[in-house]
Amino acid sequence: MFKVLLSRLGQAALVMLVVSAVSFVMFRYVGDPVATMARENASIAEKEELRQSLGLDQSIVTQYGRFLKRTLSGDLGISYRNQRPVTQLIAERLPATMELVIVATFLSLALGIPLGVLCALRPNGATARLVQAISLIGISTPTFVTGIVLILVFAVTLGWLPSFGRGQVVDLGWWSTGFLTWSGIKSLILPGITLALYQLTLIMRLVRSEMIDVLSTDYIRFARARGLPTRYIHFHLALRNALMPVITVTGLQIGSLIAFAIVTETVFQWPGMGLLFIQAVSFVDIPVMAAYLLFVGLLFVIINTIVDVLYAVVDPRLRARSA
Asked: Any bridge partners for residue 176, and if so which?
């Protein structure tokens, strides 16, 4: 077991090293931050002085070495646009993104699992066919289109929900939450639904597929032959086994939701990390862009490492293979 953990940690460190190199090199060619930060009538000498103060006059290797050293010490640099530490900006924006992801994950599980079970138990029924058709439309429609339609219907036409912003929040130390105010809860509904639609469809189809496979196994036939109640067979035996891959996919999708919340946060002007990244791109704020990519990469690495280790805990064959 220790070998499995050590191997996964080594792989995680190698992946993060590659991600750091990619983020550093990629964002060095998206624009010149000096042209953005310098005043309009700045002289060449002033621009060169600014370039030297940012360390952009040094070689790429030297800049990457400094970047890697700062990153390992927890220093992600200073934002060119805000002139504040990037870690502070991420800490301020992270609660908004995490609450949006929590709502989207809850909605996708609360609706996706029952709908998947319904489609599996009555695969040829009219309701199941309707749900699958709607899910196909939902997964095919771009996120920004879904968000704009929801804003048009529920914010502009009906006036039930706010169309942008986070609403009123409550500060709990460094963490800010909208769950404790009615305004914050209402503001979460539309962006939460928009972000949840893709994952909801994925979970629904996965539950349907797994349930159909489980219901055709021998032990389910044996349970029916013994005369066990249908509800017990469906929801205690079949569903519990069908949910195993769903748990894995849901964990990995949480990282995807954080990474791809950019479009939803832009449409609803949600003050999260996705909107921070878009603003950083507009102003060529390289430290913020690099830090965002590193954070998302670290999140995926942590989740994948945890999943791999849990697989080794559950399945002794993986431990034997790694021994």
From this structure: 171
C-alpha–C-alpha distance, residues 291 and 71, integer Å = 9
CA-based nearest residue to 101, from 298, 209, 306, 252: 252
User: Hey, where are the domains in the chain?
Assistant: 1-81+283-323, 86-272
Mean pLDDT for 268-294 is 85
CB within 8 A of 257, min separation 6: which ones?
101, 104, 105, 195, 199
Per-residue b or e along 76-102, where b marks 16 or more CB atoms closer than 10 Å to that residue's CB: bbbbbbbeebbeebbebbbbbbbbbbe
Look at residues 38, 84, 48, 20 and name the one whose alpha carbon lies nearest to residue 292: 20
Residue 138 scores a pLDDT above 60: yes
Band of residue 4 on the pLDDT scale cut at 50, 70, 90: low
Specify the CATH superfamily of domain 86-272.
Answer: MetI-like (1.10.3720.10)
Residue whose pair of structure tokens reads 């949910």 in the numeric block = 243
Q: Residue 30 pLDDT more than 90? A: no
Which pLDDT value is given to residue 71? 81
79/21 Cα distance (integer angstroms): 19
- Token pair, residue 48, equals 């060169």
CA distance 255 to 146: 21
